[in-house]
Batch of 4 targets.
Target 1
Amino acid sequence: MSEIATTDELLTGDAYLESLRDSRRVYLHGELVDDVTTHPAFRNSARSVAMLYDALHDSKTRDVLTAVDDQGIRTHRFFMPSHDTAELLAAREAIATWSRLNYGFMGRTPDYKAAFMAGLSARPDFYAPFDDNARSWYRRYASRGLFLNHVLINPPIDRNRPVHEVEDVYLHVVRERDGGIVVSGAKMLATGSALTHATFVAQNSAANLEPGKAEDFALVFIAMMDNPGVTLMSRQSYEQRAISPFDHPLSSRFDENDAVMIFDEAFIPWEDVLVYRDVKKATAFYPQSGFVNRYTLQSGVRMAIKLDLMIGLFEMAVRANGTDQFRGVQAAIGEAINWRTAIWGLTTAMCHDTEPFGENHVIPKLPYAATLRMTMTHVWNQLHESLETHLGGSPLVVPSSVHDLRDPDLRPLIDRFYRGSSGSAEERIKVFKLLWDAFGSEFGARHELYERNYSGNQDQIRLDGRNWALRRGELDERMDFARECMADYDTDGWVRGPWQ
Ligand SMILES: Cc1cc2nc3c(=O)[nH]c(=O)nc-3n(C[C@H](O)[C@H](O)[C@H](O)COP(=O)(O)OP(=O)(O)OC[C@H]3O[C@@H](n4cnc5c(N)ncnc54)[C@H](O)[C@@H]3O)c2cc1C
């Protein structure tokens, strides 16, 4: 057998930044952003992503992060489908290695959407008659390590009406044209989209598409970010508002701007379409594409890294306050540590207890994905409450900004009255500024909203657990088990077993 030639075309950090300099339409404060790589709202976040691309080529991390897939493409380990547990564990390590570069505070790094895109290679037939599009998109994506955002959710308007009745707002196909389709409508919320190459458009598991009526809305496709029919309406930038690295060490470099994405007569070539006017497939994509099984692995690893930072800061903060010997405070930190272990343990289960995917690949079992998806929403809220409870008002016992520390008249006062029980004033303030940016600033509040909602509303996260168990026969098994119990007795007493 002849050896497969390998490609090694993964973007470097510089090439990634250069690739963002195109005609994308990103709006902020009434301004069309000229260059997202230099604009103060996006510059540092773009550099944080570029750092991930550089790590793919760094001799210290290249082998941890990348490998060669079945087609001879060198790519990130999570960008390719996994054959077995060993490959899933290696992919987990690659996800963790990237995540540590932003301390777990960037949720939508390029490996997030890799959860879906790798499935295009393992199971292209699902997308028939567009299966060739799936194959070629995988190659294009994996070989360069492209960065995709995704938009699954219709805007929060007329949610009480059937999808097909909200044509003025919800994204749908307007007409076919030579070479492709024309689409119009809006989607929320395209996290990180200003810094991506393309957007993946579909419906999530909550969308209720009626067969025979909602075909125009039953679409799955990819749109390039420089598509002239696509406009990004950014939310306010926390990076732009950051005072200094000392004051806003996270928001000043890891702000993934969430945008409303508007398609106005956007042309999508057939090559970029995966599902077209097919209600069954558009609805099935979410649980059957491998996406849910895999994105939860990426999110779980990322959450564990984020908790590593938070646990370290929590302990440093209570030591600075002199409250670290109090039993309740210690218990709170123990609880945070245990949650971190539970999350990591679920990712371990996901790598070891797998289900087949496509012809010769595996993905984590869906019930673990459903459980991790739900657990993560609890953990962050729980931690937030615990921080507020056990740090009291101490996060606000910090000067307004680094400028106060630099002032020679104020500095002696700060050094005396802001000292920690376990370190200098500067050390104490540094801990609390970082903590506050993580959970109390507007960036921190956005993170809380994100962790609670990004993978679906609170009901959907739970409903899917039941729906999927129903579909997989697991709920029937549980009912059979309950029937077994009831078969032990009847109205006359025990009918079997040692109690007769
Ligand atoms: C920071 C952030 C980043 C995000 N990034 C992305 C992204 O990159 N891509 C993307 O596609 N989405 C993104 N989202 C959107 C996210 O997926 C949604 O917010 C999430 O799915 C919840 O949906 P929703 O906001 O429409 O809330 P809703 O679904 O409207 O839920 C609000 C409330 O209404 C209830 N409810 C909703 N429908 C029903 C019903 N039929 N019957 C009874 N009760 C109901 C829910 O249970 C909940 O209590 C992001 C969200 C946030 C906050």
Target 2
Amino acid sequence: MLATAGVIFFIAVCAIVVGGAIYRRQSSKCRSTRRLKGKTIIVTGGSSGIGLATAEDLARRGARVILACRNAAKANQVAHGIRERTGNAEVQVRDLDTSDFDSVRKFAKEFKETEGRLDVLINNAGVGIPEKRLSKQGFELTLATNHYGHFLLTNLLVDVLRASAPSRVVTVSSLVHKYCSKADLEDLNFDKTPYAVFPAYALSKLCNILFTKEIARKLQGTGVVANCLHPGVVATGLLNKENTWLGALLTFLLGVIGKSRDDGAQTSIYLAVAEEAQHMSGKYFVDCKESSCCKLAEDEGLAKKLWEVSERDVKLQPGEIFY
Ligand SMILES: NC(=O)c1ccc[n+]([C@@H]2O[C@H](COP(=O)([O-])OP(=O)(O)OC[C@H]3O[C@@H](n4cnc5c(N)ncnc54)[C@H](OP(=O)(O)O)[C@@H]3O)[C@@H](O)[C@H]2O)c1
């Protein structure tokens, strides 16, 4: 009995290791060699994981890169490292907590007061909160961080993006959006449905796609394009922000099967730099190629409704709408 269990365990470990190796080999690279001197790019959550790797690549291409982060000490250290490794002094840190609408408004105001242009906004920051928690303004924290904050941030920066056109919005979603079987826009806060991290995270990633499709429609003809992506399964600390045993186990598994963060950043980089990506909008990408998202994510009516609900919840003011 024990021997059988041992054999099954051994086969499972081998399958995970071999499967991971095959998966990593299939990862696509952004082939563009485009330089970005004179371009300004914001990367939210640029202080770790996929965001860090994205920011570093863009800095290496000569862009002015703003790491928009909630932990200034950590982000400053990261920015210092990127400046040293790339020789690009134009890597800056600005405070941004995407879950807090006051912080988002402050960031956008200061950015507009001090920066002349914005060529690419990369909405990358993300979390999956293990138990239900509320943001400063009283919204479920996973959705507030992943969707509402980026919804508000992008809206507040649309005027700069339009003035800097051709320009781009890139939003990091996830394949996990496909596991969202319904989107109850009347219960985004999980007041009626019992909270669990996986459905909440999946919902937030579905919202990332619906948001991208709707803003792409609104920005049609302005020279600002908006696309979103799944980065792949990537070995980052995303699943263990709270230091739980389950988080540690999942992070270990991500480490075994996942891509490196440099490989995980490739589709974000592709959408930010590739010439052809300036001519596509409202699309979902995987491995630097357009891909299909789930039916719910293609629902135009749902996207419009989410937009209205989000506008209401972040309290978007008439002076903050630039369409
Ligand atoms: N890793 C994967 O397999 C995978 C798969 C699909 C999609 N994604 C998506 O990829 C994106 C990047 O995740 P990752 O894997 O690179 O994880 P990560 O290493 O944990 O990076 C997430 C980043 O978001 C930042 N962040 C979290 N909450 C924030 C807030 N309220 N305000 C500002 N920044 C905040 C984090 O800051 P701190 O450093 O301060 O925590 C961190 O820099 C996320 O949107 C995630 O949903 C990841």
Target 3
Amino acid sequence: MDIDSFRKSAHRLVDWMADYFQSVETYPVKSQVKPGATYDKLPSSAPEKGESMDAIFRDFQEIIVPGMTHWQHPGFHAYFNGNSSYPSVLAEMLTATLAAQCMIWETSPAATELEEKMMDWLKDLLHLPHAWQGVIHDTASTATLVSLITARETHTGWKINKKGFQGNERFRIYASKQSHSSVEKAVRIAGLGSDNLVLIDVDKQYSLSIADLKDKVKADLKAGFIPLWMVATLGSTGSTAVDPLKEVTEVCKQYKIWLHVDAAWAGTAMMLPEYQWLRQGLEAADSFVFNPHKWMFTNFDCTAYFVRDAESLQRTFTLIPEYLKTRSHGRVNNYSDWGIQLGRRFRALKLWFVLRNFGKEGLRKKVANHIKWAQDLATDIDRHPQFELLAPAPLATVCFRYRPPEVSDDDLNALNEKLLHELNQSGKIYLTHTKLADIYTIRLVVGQTYQQKHHIDKAWEIILVTACQLS
Ligand SMILES: Cc1ncc(COP(=O)(O)O)c(C=O)c1O
């Protein structure tokens, strides 16, 4: 491809992108293709001779697009939204064009310094403690692993980094039964062993039980274990339950446990004055993670990770081989010392575009609307005689099931699984499920960037009609 064809193709692709955004509602939200369908349409090896962009782009539209689930469709209510937005997409185009490795300050000073500034802006926007320092990671899973390894190293005086496990470390990790699977993954990867992850009971709201936490910590101490690290979740994946952070901080302080706060999705709500209760006690946490790539309309991947003690974090992860030594060492920030990867994408750029283009006011308005529409829906569901709300909806996720009186309790799980399947097959909306107290629970998340109130009304109407046609 020469530069003239690049220019021509780029214009064509941008037109396609704008058309896609305008017409995204005409696609089935969840891809309808069968397993293997995309694979079978692709040749068994790469072409010997280069192909034209026309041919490649035609196949993109004919083979790839049908096999995509449309996460930017306003009927997307599954998981937690992995959002983008127009300014974010534009920034991604520039990031791809610059294609810089932003591992150390010298490899792109602006990338490092913009990241530092964006972390300051996020602290201001979410009312996080001023003294914290932040870094962008790829995912919350990575940030959680980084937090655990830092806690492990800080506790042992950086000995495991150097000598490895000596066989006598008896660490315990705590998180609620509703915490995200990334917690157990981190425990495994950090070499602490899933058996040492102590899952704490939850109350009727699916929030961590402080009484059970205290009992389990005390029992562990009695048995000779060392309580090392715990995760408090603000907005659990299943039902967006909020752990009692203030009480958790007291337990952590008493037993010198590192406290990591996982607010992957819900953290964004801290920008709203009426959601300041979410962050009560937060200043006592050791680390905190939230994902602008979820509810802050910034393309995946973009996780904001904040720590109280950036020195311990860097001491845990810094490794400077000869080829990375620079004259600026000690005077500038090298973000590859703040985590696992050496090579780093320029992720701060899209955050900058999003924060500037929406403005704090624009972001607050969007998130407040999502919460309002979700809560109106929760009220409608609660009032409907054949539906049941299964968990509180403190934010913008609604957990419910269909419960027609003629169906016995034993058959409700299967009925709701069928309902979810039918809804997703319709291609009009996409929802996912969880189990709460062994009950098959349908989750509906409001939070796609360009969703409007009428999309939520339509989703509810589709649910009602589909449920009616089931029996
Ligand atoms: C509460 C919570 N923590 C962590 C994660 C993991 O996020 P990521 O995909 O960025 O690793 C999720 C994902 O939805 C989540 O809901």
Target 4
Amino acid sequence: MFPKAHITIAAATTIVVTAAILMSPSADVEAKRMSYTLDLEQGKASKAVSQKSQQESKEAPDETVVAEAQPQINSETAEQPDPEPTPRLDWQTFDIESGDTLSSLFKQAGFNDGIMLAVIHGEGEADKLQRLYAGETIRFGSDSDGKLAAIELQRNLLETLRIEKQEESFNGTTEMREPEPRPVFASGTIDGSLYLAAREAGLNDRLTMKMAGIFGWDIDFVYDVRKGDRFEVVYEELYLDGEKFGTGRILSARFVNRGEENVALLYTDSNGDSDYYSPDGKSMRKAFLRTPISARISSSFNLQRRHPVLDVVRPHEGTDYAAPTGSPIKAAGNGRVQFSGWKGGYGRTVVLKHGDNITTLYAHMSKIGKSMKTGARVKQGDTIGYVGSSGMVTGAHLHYEFRVNGSPRNSRTVKLPDAQPIPASEMARFKKVTSQQIAQFEAFRNNYQHLALAPED
Ligand SMILES: [Zn+2]
């Protein structure tokens, strides 16, 4: 998993960690979640993260680092900026309900339409006050003379439009709060399905989908997953004023499928683009999705098959996926539309051309995606149409073909080219950043195993 070059570059602590990741985890670790943050005293992990975040302030704001290393009380007091020393205002607060208008809200607060117009014709982003939605909160601040001095429109926990009277006019600015991400570790062993194990480990559906997406190029989560497969993931929990607000990105993850280890690390390159890579710098993505739809296979690729409708031996040059009519079908890779329309027994069909020699075909659609005109560019994952039962079929399904130089290949087993790996010019930076990520992952993991194996009180 880790090439030798990595070890020579890495610091001594990382070598220990590298050795640890190769060790198989103890078998009796159960699906459980650890919701704690490593501190600077306990290990190198947080320290490593701080160094990384400073380099990559584009992704992770600096306060993240501070908050992570400090007790919660500090981060709370530090994050509440004191309002300017403006004179005390009298505030009136209204929860916006459907049916409310800006005019009616101004009226309730005791201000007429003339003042409202002066506000929305103000400077900066003051005009954005015209877009109001039910569920938002608006506050009117008046000075000691009862004149309107400020308005705050809180759109959600993170976004507030603040309008202040300045000399003659009103000036609006949007303030965005950044939730503080804290890394959290979760781990599980699959007994039934990935979803059950993930839920038991405390992962929400969004994170589970993300994890399946990261490994989905290598692992078919409908067919390849076996009882005993394991996953470990470090992801962000987002906090606002010390309260859990939601979940963020997956930072690193490991999935052991039938004894084979897959490791994915989130890396933001020097251009600011983020993607998942294996520790040796290969993209987790492939130039093609293994399956264009997440569904059960109803008929496999088989060149000797007896046709279900014609009842003669006719090769099945594709794979059928049973899915309800209307289920979206994704483009397996980037390419161009070579054919779009009715194609005999295939019914409504789209054929995509990828590079020089590969084509993919999607048949029996109920509806073809609207931008699927011949020659149009298509990106991997774009919806190209919807499952149906057009053409010669016995029921709704997607018939999917993968052809190389015109010859049919089994899309489930054909070797798929990888997306772009980390370029040589970026490799040293990649190694440096990801060695810290691996250290964080390992520190969490060792701590977790330690806790899991400790006798319970
Ligand atoms: Zn078929």
